[in-house]
Design a protein that fits this description.
The structure holds three protein chains of three kinds. Chain A has helices at about 10-20, 65-70; strands at about 5, 30, 35-40. Chain A is an alpha+beta fold. The longest helix of chain C has 30 residues, at about 10-40. The chains are: A alpha+beta, B alpha/beta, C mainly alpha.
Chain lengths: ~80, ~425, ~290
């Protein structure tokens, strides 16, 4: 029931920071095929409307470090299961 | 050589000792206490604790005590008292409504300090977690301070090396609720130059140690280090995002530093409201929704000075189209979120249940968004961060879509 | 005019004085014990700075007569009816206590309770007693019948209210019986006593009433003295402390901004000195 967002192409240093960012019980990052799935948000499938929360009614805050990683991704996939 | 018996009066102020005798068991505070709201247990109510602690003093100091009871308070009794004491969220509502004006917030902090120094100590989960982390890292979180800004500090914001306006996010914002910090620096950046401490120097403010674990011995080093660090940056006005950091800065730092602070510590929303008045900040994007604002306990019932209730509302009213509804309990009697003072770690079920009550009250206003102004309020209202058994949290999640939770500075930063 | 010790045998009067003396000793010891503990506390407030035991005793007495206290200012915003109850008990008991002291003054030192003064005095005391009775009655009702949603229970609270209730009832009975037997003029200036007296007169004859009087009088002073002696060892010790706590409550800042370092003033000054000493150490005395 949570927005799923795939994270890829992050450096080990960034992974260290991601582990610090998501340390709450239901917040944990899931790993799948070299990609990380971030469980974050309002409870819907991410509609992929725009830039991470500023105009998305459903999105909660996505930490800056995560936004930086996502903006680098060419094939950034919003929502759904990882392919 | 016999050990000196534990002195329950030592270190308490005259006022606190008088207050222990002032309680009339009128039961007013039980009607307002958030912990009573979710436990209905009078044995852990403020009057029960006051009379218990008073009993320990009488047992060890008065003729009546020495004649009619054993001179020493039993360990079992103290353990019981400790459990009860750490169920309190230190929200201060009891003192606000007390019919004889007992300043319970100061009293509970002092009693926690006493019990932490006694044979029973503070709860183990706090001792082994935040307190140990502080001793090693100067932070209650298990992460190096060097990483403190890496989660949230945006690339497109410039931080000056020195400036008259400073910002201190606090550990809660750095690790738990980074949106507060990101929002705050974006807003400050829009108004002019600001500075922050080098992350290595940006220690914890001392609240989790002093209030959470009752450990005040770290405060002297901490206060002196932090005040020097802020002064070295040339800071005259310091914006502080976390209300608890602000509270302890005003209450305990001057005492341990030995002087008035050489800068003015204020809430970020206070400084921002000033900047709006000075014409240095304005909001251009209109909003089309209704919001409600939750007054954090440390702003509604601070230790020192006036409650900080007007500045955030002034800020919100500076946004075109803003419609603000207040909750039934707002201002000085605003609800506790249940997250502070170690409650999340020590009593997670009580913590989650208190937050749920707050959430429901916010939902009842019919607002689209509830704005918080504290990293712990935000955190505790977000259901995904609770460790309570599923039935409580799952039921609550069903409502989560109906009401958006956001932080006021992040919300406003998006409206620049 | 006031009639003291009417119909009371000498032996009982001696017991009365003995109890009175014992009560005063116990009460003072109890109050003093509290003051002793309070004065051990740290000086952290401007208002209490440097106050020793004498200062605290004076503060406790003087603040009892502050408007915050006698008008129960922090209770009324929470509940008007509880505010009225508190005022009834507080004013009622204080007036009766001062009134009894006045009667002792009148008996032993200077007779002033005569004529119009006596009548007014009687009226005030009866009214006070009545308010006290209403206050206690409401207190008992709230404790045992119309209970608040959440309550810290303590048997002591009920015992105290019950004891006080018996003191007042027995007091009115004493007055009533005396009025019934002596038939003093203008007895309706003691309205409650007068009503009691009228009801009692119908129940028994003069001799029976006179015997009953002694018993009720004894009960009255025994309960009254027990109550007074118990005060410092029960939750009623708040009559020493609550007015100070009220006075010091932070709401006072509304009237003027409290300076930032009002807490722990002396300790802050000491730390300031220590910092200055560390920053500018005194040169060592060099001896040749």
């Amino acid at each position: 029931m949570l927005c799923k967002v795939h994270l890829e192409g992050f450096t080990p240093a960034e992974k260290e920071i991601l582990d610090m960012t998501f340390f709450h019980p239901y917040d944990k990052l899931e790993a799948h095929d070299g990609k990380l799935i971030m469980n974050y948000g309002s409870g819907r499938l991410c509609p992929g409307t725009n830039d991470f929360g500023e105009n998305c009614k459903n999105c909660r805050y996505v930490p800056f470090v995560v936004r930086k990683i996502l903006r680098r991704q060419e094939n950034f996939v919003f929502g759904g299961k990882p392919v | 050589m016999t050990e000196k018996p534990f002195d329950f009066t030592e270190g308490l102020t005259k006022k606190e000792l008088i207050e222990l005798d002032a309680c009339t068991r009128c039961n007013e505070c039980l009607a307002w206490c958030p912990v009573q709201d979710v436990t209905d247990d009078p044995n852990i109510s403020p009057p029960a604790r006051i009379h218990a602690y008073k009993g320990y003093i009488e047992q060890t100091h008065t003729l009546k005590g020495r004649l009619f009871s054993s001179k020493k308070v039993s360990t079992a009794e103290l353990k019981n008292f400790k459990d009860s004491l750490w169920k309190c969220a230190l929200c201060g509502t009891c003192g606000e409504v007390c019919t004889v004006g007992i300043d319970t917030k100061k009293l509970w902090w002092s009693v926690r300090r006493k019990i932490a120094a006694s044979e029973v100590g503070c709860p183990e989960v706090l001792e082994k977690g935040p307190l140990q982390n502080y001793h090693k890292l100067r932070s209650p979180f298990p992460f190096e301070l060097a990483h403190k800004y890496k989660i949230w500090f945006p690339d497109d914001v410039e931080m000056a090396d020195k400036a008259e306006i400073g910002y201190y996010e606090g550990c809660g914002c750095a690790w738990d609720s980074p949106q507060m910090a990101e929002g705050a620096v974006r807003l400050l950046d829009a108004a002019g130059p600001f500075t922050m401490l080098d992350p290595d120097k940006s220690w914890c403010c001392g609240f989790p140690q002093a209030a959470g674990s009752g450990e005040w011995s770290i405060m002297a080093e901490l206060a002196n280090h932090m005040v020097k660090a802020f002064s070295d940056k040339g800071i005259k006005r310091l914006a502080v995002s976390c209300p608890m950091c602000l509270d302890i800065m005003k209450y305990l730092w001057p005492y341990f530093y030995g002087d008035e602070l050489p800068f003015e510590a204020m809430a970020t929303v206070e400084l921002l409201a000033d900047l709006v008045e000075e014409g240095k900040l304005e909001f251009s994007k209109p909003v089309e929704e209704t919001v409600t604002y939750h007054d954090p306990c440390a702003m509604a019932r601070p230790f020192m000075g006036k409650p900080i209730l007007e500045p955030p509302r002034k800020l919100l009213n500076a946004v075109p189209g803003m419609r603000l509804i207040n909750m039934e309990r707002h201002g000085k009697l605003s609800r506790c979120c249940g997250g502070s003072a170690g409650e999340r770690a020590v009593n997670p079920d009580i913590s989650a249940n208190i937050a749920r009550k707050l959430f429901m009250e916010a939902k009842q206003t019919g607002a689209d968004t509830v704005l918080t102004n504290c990293p712990v309020c935000y955190l505790n209202l977000a259901t995904r961060t609770h460790t309570t058994p599923h039935p409580v949290v799952e039921e609550w999640r069903a409502y989560e879509d109906a009401l958006k939770i956001n932080d006021i500075t992040q919300y406003l930063a998006a409206l620049l | 005019m006031a009639v003291e010790f009417w119909n009371i045998p000498d032996g009982l009067i001696k017991v009365f004085y003995a109890f009175a003396g014992l009560t005063v000793i116990i009460f003072v010891l109890g109050f003093w014990g509290k003051i002793r503990i309070w004065s051990k506390g740290m000086d952290a407030d401007q208002e209490l700075k440097g106050m020793g035991p004498a200062g605290l005793v004076w503060l406790s007495i003087i603040k009892f007569f502050s408007s915050d206290c006698i008008f129960a200012k922090r209770v009324f915003p929470r509940s008007v009816i509880r505010g009225l109850m508190l005022m009834g008990i507080m004013w009622g008991f204080t007036i009766l206590f001062l009134g009894t002291a006045g009667r002792s003054l009148n008996y032993y030192i200077v007779q002033f309770l005569e004529g119009g003064i006596w009548l007014l005095f009687s009226l005030i005391l009866d009214t006070a007693g009545f308010l006290l009775l209403v206050g206690i009655g409401f207190g008992l009702y709230r404790k045992y019948i119309g209970k608040p949603e959440r309550m810290v229970k303590n048997a002591q609270d009920g015992i105290l209210l019950g004891l006080l209730f018996l003191v007042v009832i027995s007091g009115f009975l004493v007055e009533g019986i005396r009025i019934a037997v002596l038939n003093p003029p203008a007895a309706d200036w003691s309205p409650v006593g007068f009503v009691c007296g009228t009801m009692i007169k119908a129940l028994a004859g003069t001799e029976a009433l006179k015997s009953l009087y002694v018993v009720v009088w004894a009960i009255h002073f025994l309960f009254a003295f027990s109550f007074i002696a118990y005060i410092p060892f029960s939750k009623y010790e708040h009559i020493f402390a609550a007015q100070i706590s009220n006075y010091l409550f932070q709401e006072k800042w509304k009237k003027k901004e409290i300076p930032r370092d009002w807490v722990f003033q002396e300790e802050i000054a000491q730390r300031r000195q220590a910092r200055q000493n560390a920053a500018h150490p005194q040169p060592e005395n060099k001896t040749t």
